[in-house]
From TrEMBL:
It comes from Thalassotalea marina. GO terms for molecular function: 5,6-dimethylbenzimidazole synthase activity; nucleotide binding. It comes from the Bacteria. Gene3D superfamilies: NADH Oxidase. Homooctamer. This is 5,6-dimethylbenzimidazole synthase. Belongs to the BluB family. SUPFAM superfamilies: FMN-dependent nitroreductase-like. The keyword Oxidoreductase applies. The keyword ATP-binding does not apply.
Length: 217
């Protein structure tokens, strides 16, 4: 099957238009068939040895979201303390989650024991199962954008909060907590770039020809 030029352009459009969304969520539910497509996109990600180590916990209950948000608030205060004083005020002004406002949370986990202890491609680098699960999240992120649904990844929360709140067994790793929903708008640039936190790196400086090369400013 060949991809047509129009289809190729649509894919790049989605890649460049994808954003991490934290604040523009609308109170509009995601239809079951749309959610099924997003989850299926995740489930069709590449995985080491075809391990498919992921699970998806869907969170819609307000009480559950409130418990997760409380965990975020504590972790965020802890995080703020790690920044130097001059950056702390700016950090505290950035909204870094949309846990309660988004209609759907998805906790994506990794079962590191799935399909047995020896997995093709993971014998030397065992962390490959974790990376595979991140591939699933990226697929979901792009699929969500193609559905005009915003997705925000929240990592400022201790695993134990998610484990306790969502009854995740000890042998399951927590990879990401995602907030999904329709949005009033998608920003054209990353919020952290817009906010002056960091610029996008110059791609040319990140490309090395044949061997690693030190690039000075
Ligand atoms: C693994 C991981 C973890 C996080 C993120 C991303 C990824 C990949 N990002 C989103 C991140 O800030 C964002 O992707 C970049 O700023 C670039 O912006 P766009 O995604 O292009 O909009 C993110 N954003 C946020 O507001 N709170 C968070 O806890 C996190 N955590």
């Amino acid at each position: 099957m060949n991809i047509s030029d129009v289809e190729r352009d649509a894919l790049y459009k989605v890649i460049y238009a994808r954003r991490d969304v934290r604040r523009e969520f609308l109170d509009k539910p995601i239809a079951d068939d749309v959610l099924a497509r997003i989850l299926s996109a995740g489930h069709h990600a590449p995985s080491v040895g075809f391990m498919q180590p992921w699970d998806f916990i869907l969170v819609t209950e307000q009480a559950t979201k409130q418990a997760i948000k409380q965990g975020f608030d504590l972790a965020n205060a802890e995080s703020a303390a790690q920044f130097s004083e001059d950056k702390r005020a700016a950090y505290q002004n950035i909204k870094l989650e949309g846990i309660v406002e988004s209609p759907l949370g998805i906790c994506v986990t990794c079962d590191r024991q799935r399909n047995g202890p020896v997995v093709i491609g993971r014998t030397i680098k065992p962390e490959m199962d974790l990376y595979s699960t991140v591939c699933a999240i990226q697929n979901m992120w792009l699929a969500a954008r193609a559905e005009n649904i915003g997705l925000g990844w929240v990592s400022i929360i201790h695993d134990q909060v998610l484990r306790d709140t969502l009854a995740i067994p000890d042998h399951i790793d927590i990879i990401g907590y995602l907030c999904l929903g329709y949005v009033s708008k998608f920003k054209s640039k990353p919020e952290l770039e817009e906010f002056g936190w960091l610029p996008r790196e110059n791609l040319e400086r990140l490309i090395h020809k044949e061997k690693w090369s030190v690039k000075n400013d």
